[in-house]
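ENTRY TYPE: protein
WANTED: fold as tokens:
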Amino acid sequence: MSHTMYPCLWFEGQAKAAATYYCSIFKNATIVDENPMVVIFELNGSKFMALNGGPQFNFTEAISFVIPCDTQVEIDHYWNSLTADGGQESRCGWLKDKFGVSWQIVPAHLGKLMADTEKGARVMQALMKMDKLDIATLENA
């Protein structure tokens, strides 16, 4: 039998708080199961496990979660929600939330814009100047 893979996020005693926080940000989100050690939750159909693992490990930008967005309203929602309460803005659509988890908030059609032989380089140049991405600016590059 084949099972779908899912990530395990290691927290220092904050698994429930993190799962609750993420579920408050995503429209289709729920906590599926929990015990003192782990919390299983789903965000937009993707399963995650939050583990109360202790202080041994921290998150880095080497792993990030990409949120493809259809509208600027969606980009603004995820960007503002995930940088709130101690999150950190970064460059080119990247950010860290208050738990240190890295996210990329990007237009769903960014790959198509960058693949356009006529304007792909201009799109990349515009993107490199941004923190939060602006769909209209990228489309008009």
In short: Residues 114 and 124 are 7 Å apart (CA to CA). The first strand starts at residue 8 and ends at 11. The chain has five helices and eight strands.
